[in-house]
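Predict structure. Chain length: 570.
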Amino acid sequence: MPRGRVAKIPVPRCPKHPTAQITAWGKTTSKRGVLRRYRCKPLHGFTHTFTALTEADLEAEQVARWSQPPPCPQHPDSYVVRNGLYGSTGEHRRQRYRCYPDPTDRTVRHTFTPPLPRNHVHENEEHCDECEELRGIHRGDTAVARRHTWSTRIVAVGLERLSRGESYADVSRWALRVTGMKRTRKLSPQAQRVKDAAEKKAAAKRLRQQAKTGKVVVVKKPSPSATEGRNAWHIAADWTEAFSPSIYEPLDAKLRRQALTADTHPKVLLIDDVPVYGQELDPQARKGRVRRDSGFYVLVAAEVLHDTGTPATKLRLARAMAKSNTQAWRMLFDELGYVPDFVVADSGTGILAAIDAHFDPAVTTFIPSLWHLGNRVETALAGTAGAFRTTTRGTELIPPLRNHIRRLSRASGVLNNTDTWSAWWDDLEQLLVAYALPLDKMRTQRKRSEKLMADALVKLAANPDIPISTGGLETLISKHIEPVMSSRRRGAFANLERTNRLLDLAVARHHGAFDDITNVIAALREDMNPNGGWTVPLRDIADARPPKGSYSSLRDATLLADLARQRGLQ
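Prediction complete.
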């Protein structure tokens, strides 16, 4: 017969010692209210007390369970307790812990923090909006990495916003707003000297102008939002530099494995480039007029995947390069890591030279994009009287020429064999003669494209699912790449590696990497934990600032040649 009173409330188990003897040990009062205290007497180890909430308490008050402290990295089975806070700002105070490796000797102890430090949480106070519950005392937001004040969730959402095309400044201002932080970028001594010299030079110019005209020159101050953006843009830029590989590299490895192991379908690569130009002041122009800068190119590759049973065009790789030349395309092919069976692209000189140099013609078949061919025909007739007409939709080719170009498809029978393909060109020349239009530019296009397509017709007939146009790729570029390279941001890109890591985010978004933000958070934590919570040093890839003027690695064609030479792609 049991002695003593029967417990009305089930006694919980100790999180550290599930098989230990547990007895009620009164109650304690915290900021949250009255909590039940229990005494744990383990078979091995020393006696201790802990607070917990019973099932009845949970159902009545709908609060979080008691959470277990993180294990010590050096002694996973030791006894761990909280040991104060650390951190310079009150909003981001981190929780410190104390480890007792020997349960029989409390004098043997040391202090530690988890690989990813967590924000301090008052017992059963902080509310989690995701699960609509109160958090345990050991379940504050983790820092995204050591020496970073930003939480993992804030960085994950920021990367998602960048992948949609928001600017560095917009995302940085958002981060400051939602966290309530205020931050001003501190310039390096060299950058501060350059800034001071520029301000001194501008002030002297204003004084000379005032002395000459007798009028006071009013200096227009930038808006507070613009000032904040210039001070804060580096926050999101640093996130891109440090954490984009955590999201993109697992996807890159997955796509590479799929391409190397898929033998049932031919490997099809669609490629194209996008010119990107910004604006800069013209030093030879008066009144501060601007001109188009040297710009750069974004080289984009897509694959035809069969994951869902039907072929679908998916973005594979996007790389910013100073030029769209043979070296640039060979560097993109080298990064793919496999040899495609078909390459569909515009028949540009740089692309053709890169394909011939990088791939074996006996293995890889080039298919000139009919979408580009139609555009080339229209461009060749630009400015020719009688070739275009004005409609409510704008200027377009006259109907006979427009309808003839629309026949560039499999369904029309133009690509049945070399005879039907040559007949299409013959009919085009007859149309031009009938409307008294010049033939010289059109024959140049025919010389460029007719043989290339004729060489591929036999393999196209054997593979009816192979695309004959990059129209699907153009849609993906318009939807995913162009928002990132929007006109209002084009002049802001200068660093080669950081820009490419931003493009990686856009490709990852297309593949669903940001569909569930919890998966992004898990990916960031997985990448940081093996390294003890450390990430790469920030601004390690920043361009060096020359004593005078500016430098952009993204627009440096000599750097592109050096990188190609290092990879043996000359």
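Summary: Residues 224-261 form the longest helix (38 residues).
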